Structure formats: C-alpha cells, structure tokens
Predict the structure.
Amino acid sequence: MPQLIAANWKMFGKLADIRAYATDILTASGHAELLICPPFPLLEPFAQALAGTPVALGAQDCHAAASGAHTGDVSATMLADCGATHVILGHSERRQHHGERDADVAAKVSAAMAAKLIPIVCVGESEAERDAGQAIQMVRDQLLHSLPAGFSGILAYEPIWAIGTGRTPSPSDVVAMHAAIRSALVEQLGGAAAGLRILYGGSVKPGNAASLLRLPEVGGALVGGASLVAADLLAIAECAPRV
Ligand code: 13P
C-alpha cells in the first residue's frame, strides 16, 4: 500500500490560498497518497479545487451526533456532504483544549464510520508520561478506549511533546511504538487490523521525513506546520518509499 501523507492545516489558511496550493500539490509524483485537512470553511472550496484529482480531502473534527441543537458543531454527514472522505479525530489539541476523553473520541469515530468517512484517530503520550516510562502503556490504553468495536480507519501516533516543537522521537522509539500500536490493534480487531495504516505525526519536515517514513510500520505522516507550504508537503511526500 502506498504511504499516506496527510496535511493537518489546523486553524490556518484562507480562501485566497487554495487555488495556488492545489495547483502546486497536483504536481506530486503520485507514489504517496495525499490528503488535505483544512478548517471547516475551506472544505467545500477545496473540494472544488481538488475535484477529479487523486488528492483526498478531510476535516479535523466532527460531532458524535448526526444532527441536532449543537451550536457551533459540525456532523460527520455534513463533512461528507462537503466532499470530505476523511476526518481527524482525537487530536491531542482537541483532547487538551476541548476536554475530549477517549469515550468522546470513540463516539465520534462511530459517527464518522456511519457517515462513510475514514477516521484518522490520534493517540500519543505527554512528555511526562514518556519520561516516566509509561508511553507505550498509555498509548495502548488510549487506543483501547478510543476505538469502537468494528473499527476501520487509520491511526496516527503523535507524541504530544513532538507537536510543533521541532523535536521527534528516536527512530527506535517510533518503531517500538508503532509495533505496540499494531499489536494492540490485532488484540482488539483480530485479522482486520492487518491492513490498517499507522501514521507518524509531530514535527515532520522535509529534512527528517525520509528517516521517519522508512521505518517499519510507519504508513505515512500526519503533518502540521510544514503542510501549510505546498513545496514542503511535496518534499515530504517525495520521501515516502516507492511501493
Ligand atoms: P506539527 O507537524 O506542526 O508538529 O504538527 C503535528 C500535528 O499535530 C499534526 O496533526
């Protein structure tokens, strides 16, 4: 399976950026799959800019309900209606700043799957948890409680201390964590776990992408800051191993 290079624009970007960005990323050589996850207001214009291309479109969150009196929220069906095929769920910024717990994430994942979206479920430890030697156990627990029965989708390992800091875990720590995530997925999902991608996220840049993307069990990258510059996203995608 080709690797997936997913751009998480977070709360950045504006309408005027879309056309040039879409034109640039469509020059990608195509051996990695590309996914762009802009803020909600840019989804539909991005869907128009990317229509008929192999670049996929995703959102960064959804509500667990299909509709209702939830001021300010957006449902998974609305995302699908705007042309999204993926949705990032359980990002550490949502867990930290919006109090999302594992059970909330699991409910959102179920809603996304019901809307035929592919959920990208984020897990990752804090620096204190890593320093205490609890990173793997913590991530296993997060996985266990953040994935609903019958889960199908993508995982993203994003150590909180690596997000936006320029720091990354050592290759051996990434390999150990991705292997632990795979084994936890097999325990939970059995044979269905085999084909699921596990992305790495946290300070992925053109300069370090090759060393991260060549590691066993790394199925691609979830890229924050560097994804805002099309040339940097392309440079990262070019580091994906050819299959
Ligand atoms: P950075 O690439 O900016 O560290 O962000 C990573 C991230 O949070 C992607 O979801």
Q: What stands out?
A: The pocket of 1,3-dihydroxyacetonephosphate is lined by residues 8, 91, 158, 163-164, 201-204, 222-226 (CB under 6 Å). The chain has a mean pLDDT of 97. The two ends are 7 Å apart (CA to CA).
